[in-house]
Each structure stands twice: as structure tokens, then as C-alpha cells.
């Protein structure tokens, strides 16, 4: 493998169609697409400072490097890439890519990142400003993910997450086959219009969350500041360990909790008799919506 070390590379397509090369302590400066169509390369201790550095690449490893903001939209159409110990300042990275492995990676501005990708594995990844992160992506696995950004994984499929903290309004919308273990989720309207969502040993804070879901399983979960939960959801199997502030018009399944502050079961809205409520204490019960505009 050819080694390129301690260099500044400039000009458009500076290493176009590079193959079986190793880059160490290299600065990819001005000049678009320096490594476009590269394959079987490694990059370490390097800096990507300009546009579109890695498009249409295959079998790439990046270690201890930095992607700067001007390199936005720089990681597209990728097949098999591993990145570790790296900071990514550029937004809109990863589009229509597969075989992505990230370990000990920090995104400082991850807006619109990782769209329409598949076969994704994240470990010890921190994401800031991550609105619409991983939209329409599939086969997504994460362990120790820390995310700040709304609309996480909108349209995603086949998702498994462990030991994570997700601060995200409208997370897991339009999703299918999601399992989250031992995690904290904060954000309004969690999980709407999704199918087959499972939360195990999770703490959830979500105003009007867990609604419009077909197939919702919750095992040993805590819900905080969660009102009007489960509206129009079906095939529910929810085991909640604390008081739920309010539940509104669930449409099928079982909800277990020690206490519910307000229970709204309006038969005009759905077949509320299909839902079994197992609860030691209910503060108020309504058969009409007390605030129909909510």
C-alpha cells in the first residue's frame, strides 16, 4: 500500500480514483472532490477542509481526523466506511450510503445527516444540532448514542438502540420495527404514525407521545411529564412503573400503571372497549374529550 504523509493536497480531484493508498498527516485543502471514487484506502491524523472529499468511495477507514464545515455534503454514495476518533463539523454528511461504522465520533453540526442509508453501526457517538438525523435510513444500530436534534430517524426501519440519551422532538415518526433498551428519551410527540415500537427499561418524557402507533410494547418503563398518551394507538402492551399524567383514547391493548391522573375513553373516537386498563388508582375519568381541541 502506497503511503502519502505530511502533505497538503490542493486542486480539484487531487487524488481521483486513488486505490490502495494510506494517507497520514495530510491536509486536503481547497479543491473539490479530492478522493472521489477512491477505494481501499486509509486516512489517519488528517484534515478535510473543502468540499465533497469522499464521494462514491468504497472500503475506507478514517482515524483521528477532522472534517471541517466547508466540507458539507462531503460523504455521499459510500460503500463500507469506518470512522473512529474523529470530529465532524460539516452538516449534511452521509447520503445514500451503506456499511457505515462510527466509533468515538463527534458531530458538532449534524443537521440533515445520514439520509437514506442502510447497515449503520454507531458506538460512542455524540450528535449536536442533529435535526432530521438518519431520515429514511434502515438497519440502524447504536450503543451509547447522545443526540440533540429533532425528528430523529423519521421514516426509519429495523432500528436497535442501547444505553443512549435522545433529546428529540418527533423522534421515530413513520418508523417500523424499532427497539430501544436502557435509554432516556426526551421530546414531544414520540413515535407517531409508526409500527412495531418497543421500549425496554427506558425513561420517557414526551408531551402527547406514543400516539397513532400500531404495535407498541413498553417493558419496565418510566414516563415523565407525559400527557394525552396513547391516543389512537392499537396493539398496546405497556408496563409503566410510575404515574401517567393522562391517557387519551387508546384503541386496543393493555396498559398497566400504578396510577393514571386523567383517563379519557371516548367511544365516539374509537373502540375504547378494546383497551384494558390495569391501574390501582385513577384520578379522573371522562367519556367525552374534556378539551376537544387538544
What does it look like?
With 294 residues, this protein is an all-beta fold. 0% of the residues lie in helices and 52% in strands. The protein is built from no helices and 23 strands. The model has no long low-confidence stretch (mean pLDDT 96).
Identify the notable features of this structure and list them briefly.
single chain; 294 residues; mainly beta; 21-stranded parallel sheet; two-stranded parallel sheet; elongated
Provide a compact summary of the structure.
The protein is an all-beta fold.
Strands, helices and their partners?
Elements: E1 2-9, E2 19-28, E3 39-44, E4 47-48, E5 54-55, E6 58-63, E7 66-67, E8 75-76, E9 79-88, E10 98-107, E11 118-127, E12 138-148, E13 157-162, E14 165-167, E15 176-181, E16 184-186, E17 195-200, E18 203-205, E19 214-224, E20 234-240, E21 244-248, E22 253-264, E23 275-286
Parallel strand pairs: 1-2, 2-3, 2-4, 3-6, 4-7, 5-8, 6-9, 7-9, 9-10, 10-11, 11-12, 12-13, 12-14, 13-15, 14-16, 15-17, 16-18, 17-19, 18-19, 19-20, 20-22, 21-22, 22-23
Mean pLDDT across all residues, rounded? 96
Strand content: over 45%
Number of continuous helical runs: 0
Sequence of secondary-structure elements: EEEEEEEEEEEEEEEEEEEEEEE
How much helix, percentage-wise, in residues? under 10%
Largest sheet: 21 strands, parallel
Radius of gyration: 23 Å
Query: What is the overall silhouette?
Result: elongated
> What is the terminal separation in angstroms?
63 Å
Going by helix content, strand content and strand pairing, the class is mainly beta
